[in-house]
Write a structure and sequence with these properties.
mainly beta, Laminin, 6-stranded mixed β-sheet, 5-stranded antiparallel β-sheet, 5 helices, Growth_fac_rcpt_cys_sf, calcium ion binding, secreted, disulfide bond, EGF-type_Asp/Asn_hydroxyl_site
């Protein structure tokens, strides 16, 4: 009887032969089996990407093409990163770059490959630039690895890195520069035209440059210290998109950001205007920006170098100056001014139409902002007006007070509001030393800025138009802007990194809330607490500051560095994990209030551990500010902890692998199980089962079989 090659099934008086998976019955010999070539049926390895099919007896396998390797899951071929190996290309002379399934070595500047070299060749030879007779001009050429050097001939001086010119023929006395340029001589006496300090080179032309400083309401990042970082470039791009339209009426060629500083983000930038622009474009730009600083994007606008209190030519703009002695008192008192006022925590701007002033016999250069009784002839520069020409051709006398408590400002404060009053007065005319008396018309206009102590007022964008207000007691609302920062140290020298910022459990984290720096403003935090969500009323909370003092709930882990003692509040705590919460995040909330020392007593509470705090004086329920989220980092979040899966047990990471992989001896790496290992593991299981069954049988047999009696043997 013939036997089956693989599977045999008995039937009545006969049998049937069948084949295992991967084989078919041989039609010429039913007892035999033929291998199935799966690689001939479509593309069984298409899902693997760069792979080819290899037929095996009873099966097939997918083999990655050259330059590719199987991924960790064993289900796709991925490109081998040859450039990760620093020996792939000669890093001194070439640069490695990945290509699909391969790589190439590209020679650096000053090097070249031999002819007929493959892209993968890492041989790059130095180029002798001195073989080119034009490499150096009026100089000797010296070849160097990857470059060359030009040494000027005797009696010649360097003009560029590759050219020299005769000495002393280009002294500044022989040089004529264009408008906006000036001649400067180098150490060899060679004179060249350079842009003046008031100009900037742009596309080989020196254009007028006007410098500005703008304070935005965004949070400063450590990456902003490098203007070329991705974060800086993204911020500068958005800054230009907002700033350029504000000054769009002028002929702006470029806006160049020169520096970013903290507090919130202070932007120093230059605006370049075309050479054919108006004589005073900086005045138009400044006017437009001042009228826009109440927008949601900016809260301060300063200008560097603009003259104040100088002579102004009003001829052709305003009617002739009226003699004040011809104006009756009633007309003066009922006169209305076209004026515009801006109130910000770090800038107060007051603009008055110049023609309104000349109509009542006042020159703008006679005005100052000062306290009653002050020496008006000796006030600070910022308390004098800047004469600006608005975009509609009118003249404006504008006061830009960058420190809001200067210029004799009088502060008054109640539970909700801080009011600053500014008195604009006329400087008395100069009289001779022999005069005993004088008569002149005094002018005094009071402007009031009202600041909400704890509420940010969202003011709409002020368009470039002027509003008419009465001569006496005008008032405008402003706001105090508070910047928030999460830090690694109590001095907040280093901010927390990441988006969101991350912190390990038990590490200290500090937070800082700050007003624009001032000796008079005091920031007060009466209550601060943490919650696991952004909801400040979440019943799950961790108290940090209570009644202005460190909370007694966890005193050894809480530090209040500064509170009720300056323009900022700093506190910190040892980070922790919330109990029973999967998404471990920390949000910090504070009730903050602003107090002004000149208007009230801003002292804080007396804090004693374990004792009830004394009520805080001159404090009301402030505005709620929130920081966060902070993300808590566990060992499983650290890169390289586990290859595949990571779970925590008592705070320690436990690694496990996907199906088809086994955990390596290091406890974190996952190794793919080969077919031989699978077969060996099954044989081991079978052996264990056989041994176990045999042992069980012998054990049961010994328990239920009676022992035979032994015969006694007597010896004599």
């Amino acid at each position: 009887m013939d036997s089956c090659a693989q599977n045999c099934t008995n039937t009545a008086g006969s049998f049937n032969c069948s084949c295992r998976d991967g084989y078919i019955v041989n039609p010429m010999s039913p007892n035999d089996c033929l291998n199935v070539n799966e690689c001939m049926n479509g593309s069984p390895c298409a899902s693997f990407g760069a792979a080819s099919c290899r037929d095996n007896n009873g099966s097939f396998s997918c083999v990655c093409n050259s330059g590719y390797q199987m991924n960790a899951e064993g289900n796709a071929c991925v490109d081998i990163p040859e450039c990760n190996n620093t020996n792939t290309c000669n890093t001194t002379t070439s640069q490695c770059s990945e290509t699909p399934g391969s790589y190439q070595c590209t020679c650096k500047n000053g090097y070249e490959k031999p002819s007929n070299s493959s892209p993968q060749s890492n041989t790059c030879m130095n180029i002798n630039e001195c073989n080119n007779t034009q490499a150096c001009r009026n100089a000797n050429c010296t070849d160097l690895p990857g470059t060359f050097r030009c040494d000027c001939w005797y009696s010649y001086i360097r003009q560029t890195a590759q050219s020299c010119i005769p000495r002393n023929i280009t002294r500044c006395v022989n040089v004529t520069c264009e408008v906006g340029q000036e001649c400067q001589e180098d150490e060899f006496g060679h004179g060249t035209c350079q842009c003046q300090t008031t100009h900037h080179r742009h596309n080989d032309t020196c254009l007028p440059r006007y410098r500005f400083v703008q304070r935005t309401i965004e949070t400063f990042q450590a990456a902003f210290n490098n203007l070329t970082s991705p974060q800086s470039l993204e911020f500068i791009g958005r800054f230009k998109m907002v700033m350029l339209p504000l000054a769009g009426a002028t002929d702006i060629v470029a806006l160049i950001v020169t520096n970013l500083q903290p507090g919130s983000v202070i932007v120093s930038f230059d605006i370049l205007v075309g050479p054919g622009s108006a004589a005073t474009p900086q005045q138009e730009i400044l006017t437009t920006i001042i009228q826009s600083i109440n927008s949601n994007n900016f809260n301060t606008s300063l200008f560097i170098g603009l003259p104040r209190g100088g002579e102004v030519n009003i001829t052709g703009v305003c009617p002739p100056l009226v003699d004040r002695s011809t104006i009756d008192q009633t007309t003066l008192q009922n006169n209305k001014l076209n004026a515009n006022m801006t109130c910000q925590s770090s800038l107060v701007g007051i603009s008055i139409d110049v023609c309104n002033l000349t109509n009542i016999g006042i020159l703008p250069t006679e005005l100052v902002v000062a306290a009653h009784g002050a020496n008006l002839s000796a006030v600070a520069t910022q308390c004098k007006p800047t004469i600006l020409r608005t975009v509609d051709g009118k003249l404006s006398a504008t006061f830009i007070i960058s420190n809001i408590f200067d210029c004799g400002a009088i502060a008054a404060m109640d539970a909700q509001t801080l009011t600053l009053s500014y008195n604009i007065q006329t400087v008395p005319p100069t009289v001779s030393s022999s005069s005993q008396i004088q008569r002149y018309y005094d002018t005094s206009v009071i402007f009031n800025c009202s600041f909400a102590r704890s509420e940010i007022v969202n003011s709409p964008l002020l368009m470039p138009q002027l509003q008419r207000i009465q001569l006496a007691q005008p008032a405008v609302s402003g706001r105090f802007d508070i910047s928030l920062m999460l830090c690694q140290d109590e001095n907040c020298a280093t901010s927390l990194q990441g988006n969101p910022p991350t912190v390990h459990v038990s590490e200290y984290v500090y937070f800082k809330a700050a007003l624009p720096a001032s000796d008079l403003t005091v920031l007060q935090a009466r209550e601060c607490w943490a919650t696991p969500t952004s909801n400040s009323t979440n019943p799950t909370r961790y108290p940090i500051i209570e009644s202005g003092c460190p909370s007694n709930a966890d005193p050894s882990s809480i530090s209040v560095v500064k509170n009720f003692n300056g323009s900022f509040v700093t506190a910190g705590f040892k980070s922790f994990a919330w109990v029973g919460i999967n998404d471990q995040k920390i949000f910090i909330h504070c009730q903050l209030d602003v107090c002004v020392n000149s208007a009230a007593n801003c002292s804080g509470p007396v804090c004693s551990p374990g004792k009830k705090k004394r009520d805080v004086q001159n404090y009301h329920e402030g505005k709620l500010y929130s920081f966060g989220p902070l993300k808590l980092v566990t060992p499983c979040d650290e890169p390289g902890t586990c290859d595949h899966q990571c779970t925590l047990h008592n705070g320690e990471p436990i690694c496990s692998c996907y199906a088809g992989f086994t955990l390596d001896s290091d406890g974190k790496s996952c190794v793919k199980i080969t077919p031989e290992e699978k077969q060996t593991s099954w044989i081991s299981v079978i052996i264990v089962i056989v041994v176990f069954v045999t042992a069980l049988y012998l054990g049961l047999n010994s328990m239920f079989t009676k022992p035979k009696k032994s015969s006694k043997v007597l010896t004599t």
